[in-house]
Structures are given as structure tokens and as C-alpha cells.
Amino acid sequence: MNRDLRFTALKKTPFHSRTSLASRTNKYYNWNGFTVPTEYSTTELEYTAARNGTSVMDLTPMCKYMINGSDANRFVDYLVTRDLSQMEDNTVAYIIWCNEDGKVMDDGTIFKFSDTKFMLCCAVKIYNWLHDSAEGFDVSCEDATDTTAALAIQGPTSCSTLKNYGADDLELLKPFGMKQYNINGYDVLISRTGFTGDLGYELWTNPANAENMWDSIMEAGKELKIRPFGMHALEMTRIEAGFIQTNTDFMAAEDSLRPVRMRSPYEIGMGWLVHLNKESYFVGKRALKKEKETGNSERCLVGLDIDGDKPAVGSVIYNEKKEDIGIVTAAMWSPTMKRNVALASLKRPYGIKIKENIFAEIYHPEELEYKKIWAKCKVVKRQFFSPERRNKVPADLYE
Amino acid sequence: MAKNTHDVIVIGAGHNGLTAASYMAKAGLDVVVLEKNEWIGGAAVSRELYPGWKYSNCSYVCSLLRPEIMRDLELYKYGLQIIPYEGSATMMRNGDYYAHYHDHDMTINSIRRHSHKDAEAYERYSRDVLRQCKIIKPLLKMTPPDLTSFKPKDLFGALEFAKHFAAKDELGGLGEKEIYDTIRFYTMSIRDYLDEYFESDITKAHLAGSAIIGTALGPCSPGSAYVLLHHYMGEVDGSVGAWGYSRGGMGSITKAMTGCLNAHGGEVKPDNEVVNVITKNGRAIGVATKKGDEYYAKKIVSNLDVKRTFLKITEESSLPGEFVERVKNFKIRGSSGKLNIALDGLPEFPCIPEGDPGGGGDMHFTETIEEMEGAYDDWKRGEWSRNPYVDMCIPSKSDPTMAAPGKHYMSVFIQYVPFNLANGGWNEERKQEFGRHIVDCIAEFSPNFKDLINHYEVRTPLELDNEVGLTEGNIFQGELTMDQLMFNRPVPGYAQYRTPLKNMYMCSSSTHPGGGVMGAPGANAAREVLIDMNIPQTGNYY
Description:
The complex is a heterodimer. Chain A is of the alpha+beta class. Chain A has helices at about 15-20, 45-50, 70-80, 125-135, 160-165, 210-220, 230-240, 285-295; strands at about 10, 25-30, 35-40, 55-60, 65-70, 90-100, 105-115, 115-120, 140-145, 150-155, 180-185, 185-190, 200-205, 225-230, 300-305, 315-320, 325-335, 340-345, 360-365, 370-380. By secondary structure, chain B is an alpha/beta fold. Chain B has three domains: about 5-50 and about 60-80 and about 250-330 and about 480-530, FAD/NAD(P)-binding domain; about 90-235, no CATH class; about 330-470, D-Amino Acid Oxidase, Chain A, domain 2 (2-Layer Sandwich), CATH 3.30.9. Chain B has 18 helices and 20 strands. In chain B, a hairpin with a 2-residue loop joins β8 and β9 (about 240).
């Protein structure tokens, strides 16, 4: 039967032939219009691979944009809140960007090849926003989502796995560094970045190389506890690492139906990425400067350490007087730390000045009844887990 | 002769000694741990006896270690990471195999290959065992009440204990039937228990393994069902009964505990064997070491088993006669041996299909309960089992830190092996003969196994006694039978971690809730010391 290909419900990534073969459970979800596995075998074991061996995740659905042109450097510096004027070639930076009201649109990573060439990766589509913002700059912005295949290779043995794959001297690459390789006849860009808060890399290549790259890496990691890794396991590692996720921990400004849901960087713990002393103007600078000066940020996004072992998924947070002071945006029992942790959006001064005597109301399902738990919480650093190996140079090798 | 003064001396740097020490150091006390060996860890150690291979020399898998302890002592900060098992399998002489998996439904499908009825019975069995685990879990953290005492603490304690058996909130109402079930479970043999659920020999044999590991009971001995429960009450992140490897071997657990202890100002002194507890007017005031040093402290906590503590390093004259008699009668019979093997590659087990997660965890080759009982019969005669029950696993299949990529470490736990070997006892020659026998048994199921062996360490109950300090080589520091559990552990009247000597405490697995790398005896003992010193306690455990 021939199907009319003008209609496609969900696209397949260039790794699909491999990811679908690796999937024992046939569980998929829709990520940015692509079909990708939520789980390959057991989330727990996949999660463990990221903390013990090497985990492999198909990252292709991430939005990717190429920004080229003589004004590229000036343009990205204008687009984002962080001062990128001193950014070195072949490095990556974590960034956020705002609208003119100083509300966060998304977070992402920017890859700098040279002053005239950048790649931007993020969760929410911004093709239009890039084009509108580029007015007056000599740049071209091209959507590379479909034309770039990407894999995340994360975990303590990831460096050894990639060295076996052909990435020579990779252990010397610093965190947020990137390096161009030619492996098995294909160009592969490797950056020391990731979403697991552990040692790890991301690989970017032409879709034509996808299957070869997947197969070669699986072979390279055979003795290094390699395992494909689905979205559920990624969610666990990113919470432990304290990374935020757009439209989970905060609403993207352009996606918010209700204006009150929009958040400034200060309200989601991203104030450190706002460089108000940056010489040039950047989108949202005026509003952010005002917010900083008046100190009228209303919310904050914090880490919580919660009593007991029942995850506070979706819990409302209360003060001692049982007044509603916020909500949990992501929660889990951490298998590595044996801690019950959560990210929560709180109304200030809770989370900033008041860090104790706050409570999560947890509804724990128990065989068709809910057990209501009133659990004490402590505000802690959002980055719950950050092992030494994460930033070590040279990176750990297993030989 | 050096004289040292501390708040607390802990004798023995095993996992319970280190747990107790860490909790006390966290509470602000100046704690020193004296360890006889040059290495730290007791029976939770990782030693490199052959270059390039790390062995979990004694205990080899982790499940029972209480998550609250890992949380309170922040063991992840000091490198502890648990890697869950992928599955387990029993190989069969007809070339088939029986497997359990991390995923419940996969297990059901697997059992169904052997018996349709057993596959469904397994659901019922899992529920019933889980229910018993839920009853017992809160008891692990409690100091057993003294049932003969009228102190308010004991009366409330007894009530609290009883509450967990009849609690309506926790288990949705345990009825009369369930209470009977509990009592039956605690006293039955595992064979009788499993017969009530299953029909196929292989299902029963696979499940019965947990009931005999480490114990001097056979699968037909009354009380063996409880041992299964003891092995099931652990968990890996909420999956009750799940087992996992400690990344870097079991030594990573005690290494992490030492890290926590050091961070709170405590210290472990290896190569400092305590030979004598110094007493004065019925109080313990210090210890003397083999090196001739004396250490003095307000409190002394012994991580040695109850026999070593009171029959070896404490003067009998300072203890009540009846107590000494009870300690002498404490059952602590060794029944297990172990091989740690450095392999040049991954051994093939043709019974288990390549890539089947069933081969990722523990593997066995005992097909019937009768075989198991036969293995026990040999032990009763003072011989090692000719057809032993083995619990073997290859941690390096999951853990990249045990051996170089492509190389493997295999841990083989053997049941049964006697402490008092008939016909003249253990010597080097017989120990090697025993080792060769086990290698031969495994080689029956793995054609390339023998060719891959670079080195192996043989451990008999005698080594466990001499080197690790486990009397008679009993891995639980005392049998897990009803007469020696809860308020009877180690001896009636002394189940609250205190001893006849004032200021002296016990924290070993000889105390409630017993053996396994659980840490609960250590944490419970630390609590009692802190109560006696009027020091407030915090944390998730208490």
C-alpha cells in the first residue's frame, strides 16, 4: 500500500531504524513532531546507565538553528541575556532569551564555531523569532532540525566509549568545549554538553551518518555498559542535575495563554545568566533592569529536599499557616542519592528568605485510595547531584 | 604505650560499626573506630588480590542497606551508587533455563514457559510476601521492646511492635487470617510454604534459594521461610525484594561510610586489633589493643559478633554467669563458602540465550528442592556439598569498575560448606580441593569457563572466621531463627543494644534485625547510645 506522504502524523528521526529495534517495550511519544522512545526496556536500568556506564539518547528532535553572517556574533549577543562578546571559538554556552517584557522564552545552548557561525539548540521553535529579531543584522538563520542528526552520549564511561568510536584525545575536551571530528568518513561535531549533570557529550552529524554512528557507538561501548536511554530516564537525571525544562518548570513566554504565568529569569533561578552590564542592548534588557532595580520579582524556582520517600509529584506547597505558597513542577525519588527531591515554583519570600517550615501535600496512590502525606520540606540548592567526574579534565577513562 | 581518650570507641570497622560511628559523629561526638585488619570494611570490602581485578570478597550484592541510612549519611557524596540487577536465572541440565526479570510481566511470561499455573500463582505469592515485608519493614528500625519489663518505654514499645501486625492504616486492615499467615511464615519451612503456591520443581527451586543463603538450615527445616523474607525485605528504590550491585564492589559502601565519618571528624584506625575491654566496677571504660595501646571512652560499641565480644575480648568474670551461658549457646553455625574469580573474558552459559537479561544477575543450577536438601545433608555430615547450591553473579557485566573492559569478575557464593570439616578439619590442600570442586561444578554449565580463569580466591567458613572475624563463618553473625530474632536477639533481656556492662553496647548483626548489609543494627545502636547520652537525634532514620 502506498501512502500519500504529504500527510505524516509524526516524523521519524534518522535513528528510528535503530531506536525501534532497540525498544523492547514499544513505548513512544511525540517530541517536537518526532516519534522517539519514552523507554526502551526499564526506566530504572536506563537511568542507571547514565550514572554507571554510557547512555545513548536520540536528540534529533531538539530545535537546531544555524546562524551565519558577518553580524552573527553581534546578533546572538543581542538575542540572549548572557554576555557572549568574549565567547571563544569552539565553545558552547548555556543561555536563555527573553521577550521585550523580560519574560523567558526558552533556554538552550549556543555553539560558536567562529564570529560568523553559530548553532542554537533549544526546546521551543523560534524560527520566526530569529527572523524577526534579525532585522537589521547581516545574518541568515536556517532551521537545521531536520538536517542535523544528534545523539547524547552520557555517563561515566562515555568518554571511553567515544574514544573507541574514534574520537581521539576526547578526554582533554573541557566542559562546554566542542571539537570537529571525521569518523568513519563522516564529519561529527562532539561537544562536552548534556542534560544529565554527569560526564557526557553530544554528537551532531549529517542524517546520512546516523545509522553508522549509532551502530559504531553501540559497538564501541559494548564492554562499557552502554544502553539506549529514553525520555523518562532523562527526566530523572535532569531533575537530579537541577536543570529546568521549558513548559514543565515554567511556561515559555510565547506559549503562555495567561500573562501571569510568564516568568522573568530571576523568577526561575536564571538571574545568573542576565548580564545587565553587557554594553550593547539585548532583548528584554530594559524590563529586566527595572525588575532588578525594584526587586519586584514575584516567584522563584528552588530545589526541595522532602521528608519521606513518596515523590511530591504535582504537590501544592504550603507554609505553616497552611497558606498556598507554590507548586512542585518536577519531583522524584532519587535512586542515586536516596533523597526525595523536587523543583518548586514558590511565591517570594518563600524559597529566598524563608527556607524552612514549608510543607508539601502529597497524594500517594495506594490501591485505588490516596494516602495524604503532609511532608516537611527544606529549600536546598537546585543542583542536587553534581559528581566530581562531571567537570574533570582529563575525563575519566576505563581501560 | 599511648593513651587516647574519645567520646566513643567502636570496635570493628564493618558496615554496622561504621554506620553507628557515622551517626554518632554526626551528632557531634568524637568517635574512633578500631579495626583489626589493615583494610576497612569487615565483610563489605572490595580488594584487589589479582592485579586489575577488584573482588567483593565477602558480601557481594546489596539490597538490605536501608535507604534512610544512605540518605542520612549522604553516601552518594562519597561515591556510593547502587546498580540494580537485570534479572536472575536457574540453568537446567536439559539445556533449558528459568528466569526472573526486573520487569514483573516479563517474569510472569518466563514462569509460564514452565507452568501456566505457577505463572499466576506467582502473582499471589508476590502479594503475600510483599505484605509480610510491609509488616516487618517498620520493625527493622525499632529497638525491640523488653516484653518482661514494665518500664513505660517497653510497654509502649511492645504496643508499637504489636501495632505493626494489626495496623489498619498501613496494610488496609490485617485480619485474623493475615496474622495467622505471619506466624506461619515465621515458623514454616520454605518447602512447605512454596508447595502451597507452586507445582513446578524449577519454580520452587529458584525461589527457595533465598531461604537457605547464609543459613545452617535446609529448605525442609522449619524456620527457613523466614530467611527468605529476610532476603526479600530489602529494596532498590521502592522495588521491594530487588537486589543490586554496589558500584566498585561492596567495599564502596564502607568506603562511603568512612567518608561520611571522616567528614564529621571521626576516624578509623586500621591495623589496631582490640584484644581486651577494660572494665572497672561493672563499667566498660576503655579497650586495649594488640599493639599495646589503650583507648578510653565514655561509651564503647562493639561491632564484633556477640560471641567474640563476650567470650573473646571481655573478661568472663565481669559478666553475669547466665548471660555468658546464653552467649555460649547462641547459634552461629557457618554454612557458606565463596569463590572470587578473575576471568579473562565472559564465560558462556549456553542454557541462557545471549543478551537475555536473566543472565545479568544471580545464576544458579539447582533444579529441585530435593537437590538442595541433599546439599544440606552433606553439610550435616561435616562435608561440603557434592552438588552445592550456588549463587553466582558477574558484577562486571553491569559494573565497569570491577575489571578492565572485556575482562570479568565472578562471585560464587556456595551453600553448604561446614566450619568443622569432617576428617581432620580444613587445611590448605582441602581448601584448594573444595575450590576445584566448585570450578568443576560450574564448568558443567559453561564450556569455556575454566580456560578463562586467571586467578581465584577460595573462602571457607574458616577464613571468614579468621580473617573477617565472623565466628564460625556465619555471614549473619548468628542464625536467623525465631529463637534468635527480635527481642530474643542476641539473647533475651539484652535485645536493646545494651550489655551487662554499663557503657558498653553492641551494634553487630548479632543484634536486631540481624545480618545482611543492612546497617540497621548500627543505626539502632547509635540511637540507644545517643538516648543514654541525652543527645538529640535528627535524620530520616529516627
